[in-house]
UniProtKB/TrEMBL annotation, chain A:
Origin species: Cynoglossus semilaevis
The protein, known as: Phosphatidylinositol glycan anchor biosynthesis class G (EMM blood group)
Entry's transmembrane regions: 7-28, 431-452, 464-489, 501-524, 673-693, 700-719, 739-755, 776-794, 865-886, 907-926, 938-955
Locations listed in the record: Endoplasmic reticulum membrane
Domain of life per record: Eukaryota
Chief place where the protein resides: endoplasmic reticulum
Gene3D superfamilies according to UniProt: Alkaline Phosphatase, subunit A
Residue ranges the record marks as coiled coil: none
TrEMBL record, chain B:
Protein name as it appears in the record: Phosphatidylinositol glycan anchor biosynthesis, class F
InterPro entries with a match to the protein in the record: GPI_biosynthesis_protein_Pig-F
Gene Ontology BP annotations: GPI anchor biosynthetic process
Recorded topology in the membrane: Multi-pass membrane protein
Segments crossing the lipid bilayer: 12-30, 42-62, 83-106, 112-132, 153-171, 183-207
Keyword check for Endoplasmic reticulum: yes
Amino acid sequence: MKVRSSVFASFILIFEVIGVALFLRGFFPVPVKSSVSSKSKLSDLPPEPVTGRSPNSTRVPHPLFEKVVIMLVDALREDFVFGPNGRLYMPYTRHVVERSSSHSFVAKARPPTVTMPRIKALTTGSIPGFIDVVMNLNSPALLEDNLIWQARAAGKRIIFYGDDTWIRLFPKHFVEFDGTTSFFVSDYTEVDNNVTRHRDSTLKRDDWDMLILHYLGLDHIGHISGPHSSLIQPKLLEMDDILKKIHSALISKQTEGALPYLLVLCGDHGMSETGSHGGSSEPEVNTPLVLISPAFRRKEGTLKPDVVEQIDLTPTLALGLGLPISQNSVGRIIPGVFEETSLRDKLRFLHLNGHQLSCLLKDSLPSYEKEPGFEQFRVAEKAHGSWMKLYLEGNTSEVLANMGKKVLKQYLDALNAMSSALGKQLGRYDMYSMIAGMVVVFQLLLLLLLALPEALSGAAAVDVPVLSAVLSLPFYLLCLLFASVHVLVCTSAESSCYFCSLSWGLVFAAVVFSSALFCILISMAMRRLPQEHKTYRKSPLTAPVTEWSLSELDVLLLAGTVGHTLSLAASSFVEEEHQTWYFLISTLCLGVFQDVCRKYFRERIVTGDEEEPVLSSKDRRSGHRKADVHSEKWLALATPPFTLLCCRLLRSLNQTGVQWAHLPDVGHWLNSAEHKVVLSLLAAFCLVLIYFLVQRRCSLVSKVALALGLLGVYSYRAAVDNVSFPWQHSGHATSRGMLEARFVYVFVLGILFTGTKDLLRSQIITADAKLRSRGLWEIYSGLVLLVALLFRAHNLPVLCGSLLIQTLMAQFIWKKLHYDAAQTTIMHYWFGQAFFYFQGNSNNIATIDISVGFVGLESYIEAPAVFLTSLSTYAGPLLWACHLICHLSSEGERSPVSLSHGCYCLALLRSVPAAAYIVLVTVLRYHLFIWSVFSPKLLYESVHLLLTAGVCLFFNTMERGPGSGAPLQCRR
Amino acid sequence: MWDHEIKAMASTHAIIAASVFMATVLPAAFVESFSVYGTHLVWIYAVSFVVTVVSVAVFWLLGVTPPTKKHTLGYKLSRLFRCCLYFFLSCLFFHTVVVLYGAPLIESALETFSLAVLLTSLTTLRCLCVLGPNVQAWIRVFSWHGAMSVWDTCLQITVSCTLIGAWFGAFPIPLDWDRPWQVWPISCSLGAVIGFLTGLVVAPTWIHYHRKQLTYKCK
Ligand SMILES: [Zn+2]
Ligand SMILES: [Zn+2]
């Protein structure tokens, strides 16, 4: 079957996306969960162990606290309270921490340090899987066993004010609640006033047992201006004042004889030096945890806070309130909290915690008996039993006390061991699904590589021997083999794996597909062997001078692609991938510069040397005036250095990565309040420049629409208070720019519609190349307008720079120097990658700007939010890919197959790193940074692959234009 | 065919390589606590200075430099002046390129400039020695098949080796190993010097083994 290479490439990409999806399903482990999905019950609690007596004393320890107030300050960093500035930021809290009856800890949050997984962790005590980040925005109800459910089941009345994530996680759990949406990151006063306004009235009343307050303002300030902004101190003082009010209200309510209250101050996660969160750097992970209660011993002097896990709070709170520990909790109780209880109670608490952990261990680990922690717990339980026996016999000697202390220590060790064993369980992968996905992806990549010479030949078509492969004997044998392997694996594996749980039809289709691919691969390889020499000569990549010599630029492009793929193996290179791309495009610019110099300078020398001029004579004779040629020459010579300069300026706009992310950058400077005028001028200038760069090839209607749209973009930014109009003096417009944003959307849709109309007309009715390229360009300009709306104001220079470089390069470099489709595609891809990082993206989830999903939307609607967020995140690569389409199709007259070649190269460029990365991640799956560095990158890679598949499909529709008569010819 | 020239080249290169070695070892006697990492700038300037002096001396003695047409003192002086100017311009050029590659603009300007000086003394200086202050000739040598003598080929090889060395030297900088040699610009200057030394070895060897294929137009 003969297939055009673009069609071939898109098919391969689509199947690759499926393979990668299968891999991802296997890679991201389902968190440790008890196999029985029920909730712990008070009646299920184990009896207190007593040796030699029937276990009849199922005494449940009394609760320690009557009322609990949890004050959760979003993104409260450890050093805001305990650091050197803590005294300035939170004076009352510091006073309480140092002088009052309280316990303070540094609680380590596990990455991903994003709000919803943290709330889940705090309430269930489990460690949410990585994939929870992706689901961060839409949070369905939490069905797992959790503290809030337990409290409600025990008849406790819970009141909640704050981030409405809680309300979605725990519907109908609160007797009273008021949720605040956290989507409008620019608002940091209303969100907190919403919470605080209920505080006093609630504290006066007596009809509640648990009060949860979740303050969002600090997190929003972090996102807007970082942890060192001037807004931080007033906000923290406000929080401190709130804590003081709550504390004094609780003190005044405390009556003699009643159980004491407990006031908890904690953060869900910290804040990085740039003010975002999501990763695993120290400032993001370390949060303060302050427990205040008259039940604790009064402190003297300053103490360095101990380090605990954030999830340790869950069992501590559960036991403190007399509730069973939730089933999937991995935390250990904090011993300090129970210091004032009797030794018997202490041992009982530890026993309950240990019992729960050992049950979880039993459920989630087949070889649980070999775990040292499990063994230790058994021993400790026995010792506990004999201690109880002595205790009940009325023994009060010192021996008993010493023995009790020993048991306590044994319990603590056992808890540690079991908790860490469970933590390690998170690294269990569904290897079978992973390998299945990997095999498919690799077969497809090999196919892509094997078909390379054919696909990049002049015919741009690949002969895929589907029929012969399917009708051959090896195909059936392979089918049988794969099917039997599948049955073997699925019946023998103890752990459930996703691929086995698929329906038989799907599995059968996968088996057939994979074996067919295998046969096709072999037959194509066989065909390639004898005629290697003939096909290589056709490949334009190797064509330029002689058969085998590559120009320096080709070497650079190939080496860069390979080198980048290899660099992904090092965690630092993944963290700092932007450096790789910046380095590569700088080198690319210099390489292009050398080519340009060679073209324009050597010409002169050669013509002086009475040798035949290589390229110049054609240009010179074709009616160009000498001055034109001259100016063109200098413009062409100036383009690469200008591009280099542009890129250098753009990279100082957003500091990304990990190691140098905290360095000051121009973006922060522009965003500070005192430089608003500069930002306004810059944004206006960029918008005007964008207009002039884009409008050239549009129709009149689109030109007007584009101008109005860009005007709308500016007024949207003015409405959300990023920039200002000259006549607008006092800012703080509280409008969210709904109207302006929708105004722009109308024009975006209008331009896209005109473009599509032109395209369709050119495809179906007239087959006019000019109309087609205008339609394409209109679609491109619609995209540009949309991106201009979504980009933050300080990022507009990125968009502007990309348009400028595209225009100059297309005008003076790509056409004039006769780069072929493959070279142009690689350059576009590289620039796209670099612009991905210029916009401030990184390989960390935290840099995704989720606020983009709400531009022009009243509330969260999943589909448009996801679309807008991914569009703005991948704006760089997408814009360059779209420009590639426009550029190649305008080249169409020169070589009609260039679109096909471009599409093929793009597919290859994307699948090589994706496939290599899958293998790397599999090999490095026990690496220390797998969750913080490699997994986010894996998600980025897969989404990029998905988008590239989309772009390739678009390429296909473009190509069905004039000239290519019958795209699909079925021979054989 | 060019056995004589290849021998001269090999010995020249041996002398230059030895001088680089001396520049790394000897300053320890004069400068207190001298080390390549610790007092990196001193090392850079020592190497640059020694390479400059030795190359100028050796090439002047060998007489590779194209003979001047006029022999007046004024012409020679202007030639010398132009050489110095080109040297300085080339330092600025390398500095600019390195900054465009991402070196901080203000913070470590001195380090960046030192690297530029080192690169200039390893590459541009050689061009000045072999080709004289003649930009036309430089462009000729560094375009396709532009070499017109063994020395031109040698120049191509050493210069590209040095630049590639410096280029590769930038790779370890983002790694989080916290080693002393990852500090800007140590790895780059080390890479440049290593590339330069490699080029010194490779050039005569390569020419020796390819002397049959090499044909020069004007020789
Ligand atoms: Zn949060
Ligand atoms: Zn946040």
